[in-house]
# Entry
Amino acid sequence: MMNPPMANDRALREGAAIERFLESPDEESFADLFRVFTPQLVAFFRSRGCELALSEDLSQEVMLTVYRKAAQIRDRSLFRAWLFKIARHALCRQYGKQSREVETVDLENIAGRQVASSNKPAGTPAFEFHHWMAFLDSREREALTLRFVEEWEYHEIAAAKKIPIGTVQWRVFNAKKKLAPHLKARDGRGREAA
# Structure
């Protein structure tokens, strides 16, 4: 915990740097502002689990935003709160980027595998699979192929096709719904023959 004289000194340095920058936003006043707030921003990001290099990058991004948008600040007394609000937004964007990063996969071999499996004789699972696919539109066929033939997870399909995961789930659900009567008919024939 900081003792009161150190806290007062820091507050005075911050206030002077903020006032100088807002009065005359040039390189020199920004450099002072940068020196005062960058260590605090790095500490802010580090305390929230970011590596040092990422914390420094995010701090620079925040300070660049401050430099570009300083004219938009309405209440100068709230500058510090505004700066850390920008920092929180930068951190949220970073978390969003990390959660969207998905392993990429190769789509080139799918068409070749479908052609190879369609040459199987009637009555084999591959033949029946392609017969059933005729009841689906192209997006549903693709979703089912990736999900059940290639055994991709929903999030992998969503990332590869650049669509929301809910859309992938909806396509698979609708495809299953369309195929259900045909699968029941096949199951009924199989039981009759047995």
Q: What stands out?
A: The CA atoms of residues 142 and 171 lie 9 Å apart.
